[in-house]
Design brief:
Number of strands of chain B: 0
Strand content of chain A: 15-25%
Largest sheet of chain A: 8 strands, mixed
Oligomer: heterodimer
Distance between the termini of chain A: 34 Å
Distance between the termini of chain B: 18 Å
Low-confidence stretches of chain B: 37-59, 178-184
Bound molecules: flavin-adenine dinucleotide
Mean pLDDT of chain B: 82
Shape of chain B: globular
Radius of gyration of chain A: 24 Å
Number of helices of chain B: 8
Largest sheet of chain B: none
CATH class of one domain in chain A: Alpha Beta
Structural class of chain A: alpha/beta
Number of helices of chain A: 18
Number of domains of chain B: 1
Radius of gyration of chain B: 18 Å
CATH topology of one domain in chain A: FAD/NAD(P)-binding domain
Mean pLDDT of chain A: 88
Chain lengths: 551, 184
C-alpha cells in the first residue's frame, strides 16, 4: 500500500481554527435541537468545566479510559488493557463500526481482497493474539488438516513465500477475541467531532450519533484517559483524479448503468469489472503497490474465467533502479517491480530497523528511513509472477513508465490520460476506465478531531505533520491535570496519526498498533491503572486466551 | 525472526539456560555413553574419577556423561555468542534485515561441526574427530535434539512468555537509553 503522507503547514491552523469552531458550533446547535442544549460559550471554549454542563442540565457519564475510533488501533489497545487486568466496565470504545475491522474490511473488499483472499501481513501478525503465537499458519493447518501452511512458516521466505492469512480468518479471529474481552459491552456507536479538556482534570468527549443508529442525541462522556485511534483520514487520490472527478463527476458509462470512469482502488468499483467481463474495454491502472497487483490479479482471473477482453495499461513512475545501490541496501526486484513482503521491511517489526530508527534523534532522518523501508513494492507471489508473465506474453498488459499529468474527457466519454515521461515529453492515452491505486490518505487536517486537538488542546505536530507523541504514544502538550497535577488526565494516540513517533517505525500495521498499545499500557501501569505484563502475567494470560477464558 | 544484535545474544543465552539445561538434564541418562577409558575433561566428574580411579561407580559414569553433555551446551552458549555476531553480520546483507527461522534451524550444521571439533580439541570428548568416534553418537543425538527443541521453543512458546521479547527484537532486557524501559 502506497502511503501519501501529506505535509501539513502548521501556519494554516490559525485560520482553520475559526472555521473549526464554526463547524463545532453548527454540530452542537444541530444536536441541541435534538435535545442537547449547548451554549454559544461552550461551543467556542477550549476548556469546559463541570459547572458549564451542570448549568445546562447535561449529565455526563464517567469512564476512566475511552478509546476513540473503534478500529483496529482501538482493538489492540483494549485487548491489551484487558489482558493487563483492566475491567471492561472501565473502558469505553467509540466508533462508527461495531466491528473493529469494519473500516479495514470496506477497504479490503473494494481493493479486491474479499474474505477468501489473503491479506498482506504475515502469520504471526495477529490482531486477535497479542503474542502472535500460534500464528495463522498453524491455525489454518489445523483447521484444514493440511501441512502446507506449517511448511510455509518453517521455510519462509527462502523456500516458500510468506504464509499470509485469508481475510476471513483475520475477521473471525477478531470476532472470537472481541467476544472474549467483552468488546460489545464496551462499545458505543458514534462519532467524536472533538474532545475538550475538563478544568477539573481529564477530558470531555462529545459523541454525536452517526446516521441510522440508536443513539438519538448528542452525549458527553468524561474520561481520565483518552486514546485516539482514528486511522486514515480518507482515500488518497492524486490531484488530477480529484480535479477530474470534481469537474466531470457525471462522466459515467451511461450505457451500463452509470459506471464511474475514474475510480480510486479503495472505492467501490465492482461495476467496472462486471462491465469489462462482458465488453471489450481498456483500463489504465496507476500505482505500483500491491493494491495494483490485486487489480491485475482480478482482471487476469476474469479473463481466464469469463474470457473477458481487456487491455490493461499499467502506469508506474519508474522501474526500480537498484544497480547503483550497495548490496546491503538493495531492494530485490522482479518484472520491473520492487519486491518486499510486507508494507515495511521485516526488520521494522521490532528488529534491527526499528532499533536504528529509534536511535535517530533527527526527525528528518527518521522520515528518510521511513521512506526507504516503506517503499512502493509488492510481495513476491508466484501467482502474480505467472499472471504478469502470461499477461505480457498475450499482449493484454503493457507497462507505461511516466507520471500522471492530468485527465480529460476523450472521445465518446472515454478518459484521456496525459503521461509525463522522464524526458519531459508528454504522451496521451485513451482508455475506458482509470483505476488509481496510489494509496490512502494520512492527512491530519482532514480529521476534524485531530485538527481540533491541535487548535484547542495544545497538541503539536511533528515534522511530517502528524501528532507529536512521546515514547509511550502520549500526545505532547495535551495533559489535563485539573486540580490534581500528580494524576493528570492523559491523551494517547496510535496508528497513522503517530507516524514519525520516536519509537516505532511500522505504525500502519497490526504489529505497530499492538506495539504502541503495549507502550501505552506500560505507561498506564506506572499510573496504577493497569498491571504490568511480566513473565508471569504474560504466560498465564496467554493460557487463558488459548482456553478462550475471559482475561 | 527480527533480531537486534542484543536480542540474538540474549535469546541464545536464554534458550540454552532454560530448554538446553532442562533437556540435557532429562536426556543425558538415556544417551549412548561412550566407553569409559581415557576420559579427559574438567570439572566435577573428573574429580570423582581421580578419587575412585580403580572403581567406576555407576553414578560417576552418569556424572561423566553429565559432564560431557553440560560442557557441550555450555559451549553452545559460549561459541554461540561468536556465531551470533557472524549471523548479525550476514543479516546486514538482507534487505529486510530479518533472519528467517529456517536459517536458525540450519545453523545447527556449521555450529555442530565446529562444536565437535572444539569438544575434541579441548578434551571434553575423547578420541578421533571421525564420525565413527566412540563419543559421536552421544554428541550428535544430544546436540541435535537440544537444538531442535530450542528452535521449536523459540518459534513457539517463547512468544507466550514475554511480550518484551516479541516487541523488542528478541531482547528480554533493554539497556536503558533515552528513558526507555527495561521491562519483561
Ligand atoms: C487496504 C488496506 C490493507 C491493509 N492490510 C494490512 C495488512 O494486511 N496487515 C497489516 O498489518 N496492516 C494492514 N493495513 C494497515 C492497518 O493495519 C490497517 O489500516 C488498520 O485498520 C489501521 O487501524 P486504525 O485503528 O489505525 O484505523 P481503522 O481500522 O481504519 O479505524 C479507525 C476508525 O476510526 C473511525 N473514526 C475516524 N474519525 C473518527 C471520529 N472523529 N470519531 C469516531 N470514530 C472515528 C473510522 O471511521 C474508523 O472506523 C492495511 C490498510 C489498508 C488501508
Amino acid at each position: 500500500m502506497g502511503l501519501a503522507v501529506a505535509q501539513t503547514d502548521c501556519a494554516n491552523y490559525g485560520a482553520d481554527g475559526l472555521r473549526n469552531h464554526d463547524l463545532h458550533h453548527k454540530v452542537l446547535q444541530q444536536h441541541a435541537k435534538q435535545g442537547a442544549p449547548i451554549s454559544e460559550e461552550m461551543a467556542l471554549a477550549c476548556v469546559w468545566d463541570d459547572q458549564m454542563l451542570l448549568d445546562l442540565g447535561i449529565e455526563t457519564k464517567f469512564i476512566p479510559f475511552v478509546t476513540i475510533g473503534g478500529g483496529l488501533g482501538s482493538f489492540a489497545m483494549v485487548d491489551l488493557l484487558r489482558i493487563a487486568g483492566v475491567s471492561s466496565s472501565d473502558i469505553e470504545v467509540i466508533g462508527p463500526f461495531d466491528k473493529s475491522y469494519g473500516m479495514l474490511k470496506v477497504l479490503l473488499d473494494n481493493s479486491q481482497i474479499p474474505e477468501s483472499e489473503r491479506i498482506r501481513s504475515g502469520s504471526s501478525d495477529r490482531m486477535d493474539n497479542l503474542w502472535g503465537w500460534p500464528g495463522y499458519s498453524l491455525e489454518e493447518a489445523f483447521q484444514d488438516r493440511r501441512l502446507a501452511p506449517i511448511w510455509h512458516s518453517v521455510t519462509e521466505p527462502i523456500l516458500s513465500e510468506y504464509h499470509t492469512p485469508r481475510a476471513s480468518q483475520v475477521y473471525s479471529g477478531i470476532d472470537r477475541e472481541a467476544q472474549r474481552i467483552g468488546w460489545a459491552s464496551m462499545f458505543t456507536r458514534g462519532r467524536v467531532p472533538f474532545i475538550r479538556k475538563r478544568r477539573e482534570g481529564g477530558y470531555y468527549i462529545v459523541i454525536v450519533p452517526p446516521e441510522n443508529t440508536s443513539l438519538s442525541k448528542l452525549e458527553i462522556h468524561q474520561a481520565k484517559y483518552v486514546h485516539l485511534a482514528v486511522g486514515f483520514s480518507g482515500i488518497h487520490s492524486l490531484p488530477d483524479v480529484i480535479t477530474y472527478k470534481s469537474k466531470n463527476h457525471n462522466n459515467t458509462l451511461e450505457s451500463d448503468g452509470g459506471i464511474p470512469r475514474v475510480v480510486n482502488v479503495y472505492e467501490p468499483h465492482e461495476s467496472i469489472y462486471q462491465h469489462v467481463a462482458s465488453n471489450p474495454s481498456s483500463i489504465l491502472l496507476r500505482g505500483a503497490a500491491s493494491s495494483a497487483m490485486q487489480v491485475i490479479q482480478r482482471l487476469a482471473n476474469d479473463r481466464k474465467i469469463a474470457g473477458s477482453n481487456v487491455k490493461l495499461y499499467h502506469l508506474i513512475r519508474e522501474h526500480p533502479d537498484t544497480a547503483h545501490q550497495p548490496l546491503r541496501s538493495r531492494i530485490p526486484t522482479k518484472n520491473g517491480f520492487a519486491l518486499q513482503a510486507f508494507t515495511f521491511a521485516k526488520g521494522s517489526f521490532g528488529g534491527q530497523i526499528q532499533r536504528k530508527y529509534r536511535k535517530l534523534q533527527d526527525d528528518e532522518k527518521r522520515v528518510a528511513l521511513l521512506g526507504s523501508i516503506a517503499s512502493t513494492a509488492i510481495p513476491r507471489r508466484s501467482l502474480w509472477e505467472h499472471q504478469l508473465e502470461e499477461a505480457k506474453r498475450n499482449g493484454w498488459y503493457e507497462v507505461l513508465v511516466g507520471s500522471a499529468g492530468g485527465l480529460e474527457i476523450g472521445a465518446n466519454g472515454k478518459v484521456m490520460s496525459n503521461i509525463v515521461k522522464s524526458d519531459g515529453s508528454i504522451s496521451r492515452i485513451e482508455t475506458d476506465f482509470v483505476i488509481d491505486a496510489t494509496g490512502v490518505e494520512a492527512s491530519l487536517e482532514d480529521h476534524e478531531i485531530l485538527s481540533d486537538l491541535v487548535n484547542c488542546s495544545g497538541a503539536k505536530l511533528n515534522s511530517i505533520g502528524q501528532l507529536d507523541v512521546n515514547e509511550a504514544f502520549e500526545v505532547e502538550g495535551t495533559r489535563s491535570p485539573g486540580t490534581d497535577p500528580s494524576k493528570p488526565g492523559r491523551l494517547f494516540a496510535t496508528g497513522i496519526a503517530t507516524l514519525g513517533n520516536p519509537h516505532c517505525i511500522a505504525m500502519y500495521s497490526f504489529w505497530g498498533l499492538q506495539y504502541s498499545a503495549w507502550k501505552t499500557a506500560e505507561e498506564l501501569s506506572k499510573d496504577g491503572f493497569s498491571k504490568r505484563i511480566g513473565f508471569y502475567r504474560s504466560t498465564t494470560s496467554w493460557i487463558r486466551r488459548m482456553r478462550n477464558r475471559e482475561p | 525472526m527480527t533480531f537486534t544484535l542484543y536480542g540474538r545474544l540474549q535469546t541464545r543465552l536464554f534458550l540454552v539456560g532454560t530448554i538446553g539445561v532442562i533437556w540435557t538434564a532429562i536426556v543425558t541418562p538415556i544417551l549412548p555413553s561412550p566407553p569409559m577409558t581415557g576420559y579427559g575433561g574438567i570439572g566435577m566428574a573428573q574429580m570423582i574419577m581421580t578419587k575412585d580411579s580403580f572403581v567406576i561407580l555407576p553414578y560417576s559414569r552418569l556424572g561423566l556423561d553429565y559432564q560431557i553433555t553440560f560442557e557441550t551446551i555450555g559451549l553452545v552458549a559460549v561459541l554461540g555468542l561468536f556465531w551470533e555476531l557472524i549471523y548479525h553480520f550476514l543479516q546486514q546483507f538482507r534487505w529486510d534485515k530479518d533472519w528467517p527461522p529456517m536459517f536458525t534451524l540450519l545453523a545447527a550444521i556449521p555450529e555442530g561441526l565446529l562444536l565437535w571439533l572444539v569438544i575434541n580439541l579441548i578434551g571434553v570428548e575423547h578420541g578421533s574427530l571421525a564420525l565413527d568416534s566412540s563419543g559421536f553418537a552421544m554428541f550428535a543425538i544430544h546436540f541435535a535434539s537440544t537444538w531442535v527443541l530450542m528452535w521449536l521453543f523459540m518459534v513457539g512458546p517463547l512468544h507466550a512468555i514475554s511480550l518484551h521479547w516479541r516487541f523488542e527484537g528478541g531482547e528480554f532486557y533493554e539497556r536503558k537509553h533515552s528513558g526507555s524501559t527495561s521491562a519483561l
